[in-house]
Amino acid sequence: MMQKKESTFLNMALSLLVITLAAGFSLGYVNDITLEPKAKAKLAKKVNALKTVLPEFDNDAVSEVVIVKPESAKDSIEIYPAFQNGEFVGAAVTGFSEKGYSGLVKIMVGFTLDGRIYNISVLEQKETPGLGTKMKGEKFLRQFRDKDPSRYDLKVVKDGGEVDALTGATITTRAFTEATQLAYNVFVEQKEQWAVNNEQ
Amino acid sequence: MNKTLDQKQNFLKGILKENPVFVMLLGMCPALGVTSSAFNGLGMGVATLFVLLMSNVVVSLIKSQIPNKVRIPAFIIIIASFVTVVEMVLEAYIPFLYEQLGIFIPLIVVNCLILGRAEAFASKNNLFSSILDALGMGLGFTIALTALGATREILGSGSIFDIKFVGEDANTFILFILPPGAFIALAYLAVLFQRLTPKTS
């Protein structure tokens, strides 16, 4: 068996140098080969979310994204316009709130042309499994579908609104409705630029 | 003692006699943090098993080249590298699991189970024994985390591996998916484990 290296200054510096170098290069290599699949996975997630929240569309919504930054929001918001046979049929808008039980809740809300919610998909969240995560569930999302936020009060019942909160996760529900409201405000502000073309 | 029997012991000790979670109480941070469902526990267990196996292999191979006084930083660099690899691979190929485990993946680095095995076993034993040790310990950890996750999921969400067996509105013990429930469930499982495993003294 080989003799254990002695702990001289040179030996210690050299062995750490070799180990960090080897680690650095191998990490760089793995990073290189996972870069593309990582981007693909992200894109696939986005496309999937778009398909669930929007009515049928035939344009490449992902590449036609418009990014705006409302003054009231901390982060920028993405709007994906959807067209079917050249007609503007609606748009998916990302909304977020930092008032979730564990911070950021990011959702994508699909609106039809007349401003009604078509469907909602949760993009990012760190809520409590089994409580807050139920916001992904059909039972919770159902109450938002086909609602026009200008007539439907996007607030939890407890706060005087019309949204039924998740059991034991009122905070999550508040964040969710706040994010939806934000998405709606942006949609109303922005939809004209596409809707105008429909009448021509 | 017979050599093959010795190696069998070497493998089995991680699952039973020296189970990292139920007996040695190592790696409590992921064991309590991510086990809100059986699937999360399983995912965390497998990720840890992989890092443990790779770090044991590498440490065992280069042990004679690492001067004694810098062995801990050397081990940590090796472990951290494999954890980063796991993180990148999960993000690229299993994004669903990556999202579920979240912050707990980078925290595998500070799982004392992995450093503990590198220090106490791999740096003193040959490659084959180190692999068996890592497999045994990793499996013991995975089984423990899955059991803990399953217990908490059954009691807290009324489901197992996301398959629900109670109605949508049923009242479940929400306590068990919250942090205090993790401690309670772990304590009872540890007691049960001690009861069921044969004593050797």
Give a verbal description of the structure.
Chain A has 200 residues and is an alpha+beta fold. Chain A contains four helices and five strands; from the N terminus they run αβββββααα. Chain A has helices at residues 9-53, 138-141, 170-190, 192-198, and strands at 66-68, 77-84, 87-100, 103-112, 117-124. In chain A, strands 1-2-3-4-5 form a five-stranded antiparallel beta sheet. In chain A, a hairpin with a 4-residue loop joins strand 4 (103-112) and strand 5. Chain A is elongated. Chain B is mainly alpha-helical and 201 residues long. Chain B has one domain (37-191). Chain B has eight helices and two strands. Chain B has helices at 3-12, 28-33, 38-62, 71-93, 95-101, 112-122, 127-157, 179-196, and strands at residues 159-160, 163-164. In chain B, strands 1-2 form a two-stranded antiparallel ribbon. In chain B, a hairpin with a 2-residue loop joins strand 1 (159-160) and strand 2. The longest helix of chain B has 31 residues, at 127-157. Chain B is globular and about 60 Å long. Chain A binds chain B through residues 1-8, 11-12, 15-16, 19-20, 23, 26-27, 30-31, 34, 37-38, 41-42, 45, 124, 126, 128-131, 139, 168, and chain B through 36-37, 40, 62-70, 73-74, 77-78, 80-81, 84-85, 88-89, 91-93, 95, 99, 102, 153, 156-157, 168, 172, 174, 177-178. Chain B: Part of a membrane-bound complex that couples electron transfer with translocation of ions across the membrane. Chain B: The chain crosses the membrane at residues 21-39, 45-62, 74-94, 100-118, 130-150, 170-193. Chain B: Pfam families: Rnf-Nqr.
